[in-house]
Fold:
Amino acid sequence: MSRRIAGLLFLAGLVALSCIAAGCTDIPGATPAGSGPPVDDPGNVTAGNTQFAFDLYRQLAADPQYTDQNLFFSPYSISSALAITYEGARGTTADEIRTVLHLPANDTLRREGFSAIDAGLNHGDANYTLRTANALWAEKTHQFLPEYIDVAEHWYSANATNLDFIDNPKGSRQTINQWVEGETEDRIRDLLPPGSVDTLTRLVITNAVYFKGTWVNQFDPNKTKEAEFRVGPNETVRVPMMHRTDEDAIYGYNETDTLQVLEMPYAHESGSELAMLVLLPVGDNLAAAEEVLAAEKIADLRQSLVKQQVRVSFPKFTLENGYSLPETLAAMGMPTAFTDAADLSGMDGTKDLFISGVVHKAFVDVNEEGTEAAAATGVVMGITSARPDTTPVFRADHPFIFLITEKDSGTILFVGRVVNPVGS
Structure:
């Protein structure tokens, strides 16, 4: 698939899964585009999530391993899991995480912001399914600070479950993966791959997001036909292309010299209004779409849309993407959390913890009826090494020497060697 479709799919995921983060809904606590605090307001969780989304997209798009490959992820899922991680970070570790995620430094603003967004996501609507969930998975023998557990549960609805990572890491990993599958209608499987959880794991933080909605203007399956899709200047592939060209095909639309912008809304009733915003370059250069990936520019584009009849042809597609993000996040500016220098003492009162892994998986299916999308993130915390057991073990099961001394003077009264305790 081409870079063009990669950009389109990113925007689909951003709007469908994280529309709230982009400020395009009426969720309580979220900021509608073009109103409220400026996007660079450090107290604006919504603006921070949006900036992180575009920063992460650019980081992944510039990574050679993803050259000419599709990208799809949920920035809000990643941001949520790392925000809970941030609550336990201190010093340089906290500063770096806050900077990369563009989190408000003020505890109240940050926590109330995420709590309001989550409440809106889970508000419910008769015409679509949209929900998010957080969870903590803690090693049962490790002592975590009650105040950290309380913050995670109260502000992020991340209830803590004790697992046996030390003696049963495989079973613990399977338990977490089963939770993710349940929260995503089985669309995200095996979030934590083999080896990601081991005997040194002490905490896993998970987030899951699920969305399934139908178009306001659904496509007629009988009109879906195979068509060519350009993946390069001299290369095409055949794809099932959906068509909506009738007089009721009313969409928000605008175009510039370099870009066509289309907003395809999802049906809703009392819940949040969601839509897929598509940025289509006039030519084959995806840079025309990537150049507008900034909060102010997206807000301006959305405000410029005019509802009108549009003859729409749009491909059906299904994507499944997985990412291991430590190197990506470190390159974005938070390397310390992944090293022995990490300070996550707000979690357990020690500096033994560090982030051993950040994994993310995302799924999206776009068809005539609508869109189904899911994503999950796992942040794995381990200790740098097994903490030494300070309780001594003395097992005299081999030859030894012993002394009998007078303690006050230190006089050695007897010396012995035991080679065979039952001999003479």
Residues 3-215+316-383 form a domain with the Antithrombin; Chain I, domain 2 fold (CATH 3.30.497.10). DSSP finds eleven helices and 15 strands in the chain. The CA atoms of residues 11 and 309 lie 22 Å apart. Residues 1-43 have pLDDT under 50 and may be disordered.
